[in-house]
Amino acid sequence: MNNKPREIVVISGKGGTGKTSISASLAYLSKDCIVADCDVDAADLYLLLNPISIEKHEFYSGHIAKINQEKCIGCSTCKNLCRFDAIKEDSNGKFSVEPTSCEGCKVCVEFCPEKAIDFPDRLCGEWMKSETRVGFMVHAKLGIAAENSGKLVSLIRSEARKLAQEKGKNLIIIDGPPGIGCPVIASITGATDVLVVTEPTISGIHDLERVVSLANHFRIKPYVAINKFDLNLEITEKIEKIAKELKAQVIGKIRYDKLVTQSQIEAKTIVESNIPSAQDIIDMWEKLKAN
């Protein structure tokens, strides 16, 4: 495959808007894509797609201090200098580093008079290549209190592109993280399309404006999906007006559907369950394909 694959990134201004459910449904409808879960801080796409891992790799980023007990003389220099209260002293007067508190600033390493503090790479999580019923998937799991999720997101997208090239796929569907921070920027940079999922609430309007503005800043074509649009038709109308002003096409309006919860309990995508809202997503997918 010589052409760059189309990358559709599904994002939202906050969590809980239905972003992952929609991503999984689009992947199921495509039948011929690579799936990437870039919401690495709270990865849950696997719950719907039940991936079977074929490759697993450790993810290292940054460093963490570690006190060498054989060299340490208990002078407490490190404890006195640590701004993050990461150095702990036990009842025997021995010092150690609390991993979840260490920011990797290296101050303790530089000022230890005995050079008793090592500074190894920090293991932050793992990333995987898997097979699912909708195709191949690249995803990750960030460790507890681990950081650099933006770097991990970039890695996931890079591996998804490589896999698309290897398998001859011309579409990558990415379940992106919520918000507008570093992980989101890492998810959408260089993508071809952004699908912003919002809801008809006051906060939904605010989130939409932030996320669409971010997509416009990076000159990525934004589309909008209004989930549960029929819960507040007045605000839905406002969202459509704002989207038009921001040059974002409202490409889908998905009704509120109580049966979505049952679909999730059964670990099925919405479109597999043949429930009322499934047709709304199918209609949206047909429009996405045509654009």
UniProtKB/TrEMBL annotation:
<dbReference type="Pfam" id="PF00037">
    <property type="entry name" value="Fer4"/>
</dbReference>
<feature type="domain" description="4Fe-4S ferredoxin-type">
    <location>
        <begin position="63"/>
        <end position="92"/>
    </location>
</feature>
<dbReference type="InterPro" id="IPR017900">
    <property type="entry name" value="4Fe4S_Fe_S_CS"/>
</dbReference>
<dbReference type="GO" id="GO:0051536">
    <property type="term" value="F:iron-sulfur cluster binding"/>
</dbReference>
<dbReference type="GO" id="GO:0046872">
    <property type="term" value="F:metal ion binding"/>
</dbReference>
<dbReference type="InterPro" id="IPR017896">
    <property type="entry name" value="4Fe4S_Fe-S-bd"/>
</dbReference>
<keyword id="KW-0479">Metal-binding</keyword>
<keyword id="KW-0408">Iron</keyword>
<feature type="domain" description="4Fe-4S ferredoxin-type">
    <location>
        <begin position="93"/>
        <end position="122"/>
    </location>
</feature>
<dbReference type="InterPro" id="IPR002586">
    <property type="entry name" value="CobQ/CobB/MinD/ParA_Nub-bd_dom"/>
</dbReference>
<keyword id="KW-0411">Iron-sulfur</keyword>
<protein>
    <submittedName>
        <fullName>Cobyrinic acid ac-diamide synthase</fullName>
    </submittedName>
</protein>
<dbReference type="Pfam" id="PF01656">
    <property type="entry name" value="CbiA"/>
</dbReference>
<dbReference type="InterPro" id="IPR027417">
    <property type="entry name" value="P-loop_NTPase"/>
</dbReference>
